[in-house]
Specification:
Blueprint: H1 3-36
């Protein structure tokens, strides 16, 4: 029972990390798109 919150927190941290990486890639993609113009 004590492990459940820990697992949930790990899942949230993983989701946040993936979201941050995705945002970083998207921003780089947009910047390169604008720079190529």
């Amino acid at each position: 029972r004590a492990q459940a919150p820990e697992k949930a927190a790990w899942g949230v941290a993983l989701g946040l990390t993936i979201t941050l990486v995705w945002l970083y890639v998207e921003i780089l993609r947009l910047l390169s798109y604008f720079n190529s113009d």
